[in-house]
Amino acid sequence: MDKVIVAQGLSLAYEKSEMIIKDASFAIESGSFVFITGASGSGKSTLLKSFYGALSPVSGSLIVGGVELKGVSRSKLNLLRRHIGIVFQDYKLVNEWTIEKNVSLPLVINGYEKSVTENQVDTLLKHVRLKHQTGKYPLELSGGEQQRVAMARALAHNPIMILADEPTGNLDDYSAQLIWNLLAGANEQLNTTVVVVTHRIPQSLGIDYRHFHIEYGNIHEVN
Amino acid sequence: MKSIKNHISLVLALTSILFAIQTLIVTHRALEAYEKNLKTNYSIVVVSDKVLNEKTLKSKSSLIESVEDIEVDDAIKRIDSSISKNNLELLKLSLPDFYKLTLSKYPTPSEIKQLKKQLKTLSGVKKIEDFKTSYDTSYKLLTLFGTVVTVFSVVVFVITSLLILKELRIWQYIHKDRMNIMGLFGAPKWLSSAVLFRLAIIDAVISSFLVFIAYAFIKNSDWLGEKLSTVGIDIEIFDFVNDFPILFVAAVLLSILLATAIAFSHKEEV
CB count, 10 Å around CB of A179? Predict the structure, then answer.
C-alpha cells in the first residue's frame, strides 16, 4: 500500500530548546484511519500541524503526499494543501461568508468551474444534513452544525487525506457521532486517509483503525 | 456597519492625501502662471555708451531671451519743443544707447544680481535698471504662499500616512482569520488577499471622485475666480483632464501599496 505520510527521525519544536516530538519514525498508509492520542500538551496537535506544513521539522524528515516538508517552498506547500482537508476543534469557518461559500472554498482554490462548485456544495450540504440552512452564516448555526460545515468543506475537493484536530472536542454526543460517521464514511467510501487527533477514541466507529499514542514527546503505536 | 467604518477610515485618509496633492498641483500651476505673467511684463534696461549687439548681450547670460533697442527720438521730442533742432541733434548725439532686455523667466534676486554683474563687465555699460522692487513684493508674497502650501501638503501627507499605517494594522487584524483559513487550504497569497485589493481599489476610486467633486465645486465658485483674476491669474488652473488621472493613479498606487503591505506582513498562525 502507498504511504501517504512517512516520518524518519522527526523532531518538532516551537523553540529549538524545547522539543515537543522527539526522533519519531512512522508511516501512514494511504486509505487508513489513524487516531493520535495523548495527554493535553503532549504534542498531538503539533504533530498534526506538521502534516499540513504549519510547523517545519527541526530535524529528520517528513514526507506528506510525496512532498518533503522540511524546508518546503510556499508554492509547493500550497499545492500539497490543495489535496488535504482539515477540520479543527474551533471549526475555523469564515464568519462573514455564508455556509455555501465556506464549503466552496477548497473548490474555488482548486479552480473548479462555478457550476461544478455549486453542484458539489449542494451535494455536500445534503450529505452533512445542512441543506435547510442554506444562506445562513456560521454564527447563526449551532456548534455541531458549524462542525458539519467544516466537514463538508474538508470533503469538498475529494482530498487524499483529512486531518482532524479534536473535531468533536466542543460537541455534544449526537453531533460528535455525526462527525465520526462522516469521517468514517469518507474513509470507507472514498478511501480517503483520515488522521484524527483526539482525547477519546469513539466506541462504535465500526471500521479498522491504527492508534498512535504520544507520551513525553515519543510516539508509539498501540495495538 | 463595521465594514462601512473601515471604508470610511481609508477613504478619508486617501482623500486627504489626494486633496494635498491637488492643492500642490493647483498652487504651483497658479504660481507658474503668475511667474509667466510677470515674465511677459518684466524687462531690464541697459544703458551703454557703446553700441551693443544682441549676440554680445546674450553671450553674458542664458537668461536673456531677446534684446530690443529703445529709440530715444520720441522721448527727446517730448522734452521741449522750444529746443532748437541743432541742440536736439547735439543732445541726441550725447545720449547713450538704451537696450530693453526681456528674460526667459522671472529672475530670482540672486539671478538678477548675477546678471547685472555679468552685464557690467561689458565695455561701455553705464547703468542697468532692473525695476525689480516694484514687481518683487507681490511675487514674494505668492512664493511665500506656495511654500506654505507645500509645507502644509507635506504635513498632511505625513500625518495621513501615519493614519494609513494605523488603518493597516486594523485591516491586518480584520482579515487575518480569513487569510489564515484560505492559506490552510492552499490559497496563493494573491487569492487570500484578493478581498483586500478589491476593497483598496474601491476606496481609491471613491476618494478620487470625492476630490474631483470637491475641486469641481471650487472651480465653479465665483469667489475664487474673482480672487484669482485680482492677482492677474487668468488661466485654467483646474485641469481636470490631466489632474484626475494623476489623482486616480496616486490613490490606486497608495491603496495597492497598503494592501500589499498587509498581504506580505501576514504570517500564518501556528
Answer: 22
Is A196 a member of any domain? yes
B177 close to A (CB below 8 A): yes
ipTM summary value: 0.91
pTM reported for the whole predicted model: 0.72
Query: Scanning every residue of chain A, which has its alpha carbon at the shortest distance from the alpha carbon of B268?
Result: A54
Return the number of CB contacts < 8 Å for A and B.
49
Smallest Cβ distance to B185: which of A75, A81, A96?
A81
Contact assignment for B187 to A109 by CB distance below 8 Å: yes
Report d(CA A14, CA A55) in Å as an integer.
Answer: 8
Q: Which residues contact A210 (CB under 8 A, 6 or more apart)?
A: A28, A32, A33, A34, A35, A221
pLDDT less than 70: residues of chain A: 1
Q: Confidence class of residue B233 from pLDDT cuts 50, 70 and 90?
A: low
Contact at CB, B180 and A92, closer than 8 angstroms:
yes
How far is residue B180's CA from residue A108's CA, in Å, rounded to a whole number? 16
Contacts of residue B221, defined as CB under 8 A and 6 or more positions apart, other chains included, come to: none
**Longest CA pairwise span in chain B (Å):** 107
Residue B210: closest CA among B57, B3, B39, B16:
B16
Measured between CA atoms, the residue of chain B closest to residue A14 is: B270
Say if strands A210-215 and A218-222 run parallel, antiparallel, or are unpaired. antiparallel
Chain B residues touching residue A52 (CB < 8 angstroms): 184
Kindly tell me if the per-residue pLDDT of B61 is higher than 80.
yes
Q: Is residue A13 part of a domain?
A: no
Cα–Cα distance between A188 and A105 in angstroms, integer? Answer: 24
Total domains in chain A come to 1
Tell me the per-residue pLDDT of A133-174, one tens digit each, with 9 for 90 and over: 999 999 999 999 999 999 999 999 999 999 999 999 988 888
Residue at A25 is within a domain: no
Distance of CA A105 to the CA centre of its chain: 15
Render pLDDT for A176-197 as a digit per residue (tens, 0 to 9).
999 999 999 999 999 999 999 9
CB contact under 8 A, A49 and B188: no
For chain B, which domains are there?
2-37+138-265 (no CATH), 43-130 (3.30.70)
| Structural domain boundaries enclosing A101 | 31-53+75-209
Pick the residue from chain A with its C-alpha nearest to B181.
Answer: A92
**Which ranges constitute the DSSP H helices of A28-165?**
44-51, 74-81, 99-109, 114-127, 143-155
Query: In this structure, what CATH number is given to the domain that contains residue A149?
Result: 3.40.50.300
> Is residue A19 situated within a structural domain?
no
Which residues fall within 8 angstroms of residue A18, CB to CB, at 6 or more apart? Answer: none
